[in-house]
Amino acid sequence: MPILQGFEEVSITAPITKMTMTVMDTRVRFNKATAIALGYPAYVKVLVNEKTKQVALEVCTGRDANAVKFSKPEGKQTASVSLKDATLVATIREFFTLKPAPEGEDSYAAVPGKLFPEQHVVVFDAAGAVAGTMKRRGRKKVVKD
C-alpha cells in the first residue's frame, strides 16, 4: 500500500475574494478582487442586459470596439478600478435608485459579482445590490470664511 494513499494535495493558490461593483452618481468602481479574478486585464468590454438588469465585464484587447481601459499589470494595480465615462456610468446607473446622501457623503449601490473563468467574464446582478452612503474620499473642499 502506497504511503500517500488517501492524501490530497493542498492547493496553495489563494481563493478569489468577493468581487464587487460599486455604482455612484459619477463613477462605477470595481474592487481589486475583480481585477485579480479577470487576470489584471488592460482592457474590458462593459456589457449590459437591460431585461435582467445585469452588468458584465469581458476581457478584451485595446483594439476591440468599445474597449475600456481597466487594470494595470499585476503588482502595479494597488487599488480598485474606477470608470468615469459619462455614457457608461449613465447606462449602468439606470439599473439603480440611489438615495440622496447627506452633505460630504456619496450614495452608492454595491453589487457582488460572479466569475465565469472559462469565458473571462464577471457578471454583476443589480438584484443583489446593497445600498448605502459613504464619506467622500480624496481632498476635502476648503471652506473660506
Salient structural properties:
2 helices, globular, 9 strands, 145 residues, mainly beta, 10% helix, nine-stranded antiparallel sheet
Sheet with the most strands, sense and barrel status: 9 strands, antiparallel
Give the overall shape.
globular
Compressed to H and E, one letter per element, the order equals EEHEEEEHEEE
The average pLDDT is 88
Strand content: 25-35%
Would you write up a description of this structure?
The chain is mainly β and 145 residues long. The protein is built from two helices and nine strands. The chain has helices at residues 32-37, 86-93, and strands at residues 20-23, 28-30, 43-49, 54-60, 68-69, 81-83, 105-116, 121-125, 130-135. Strand 1 and strand 2 form a beta hairpin.
Describe the secondary structure blueprint for this structure.
Blueprint: E1 20-23, E2 28-30, H1 32-37, E3 43-49, E4 54-60, E5 68-69, E6 81-83, H2 86-93, E7 105-116, E8 121-125, E9 130-135
Antiparallel strand pairs: 1-2, 1-7, 2-6, 3-4, 3-5, 4-8, 7-8, 7-9
Briefly characterize the structure.
The longest helix is centred in the middle third of the chain and has 8 residues, at 86-93. The mean pLDDT is 88. This protein is globular.
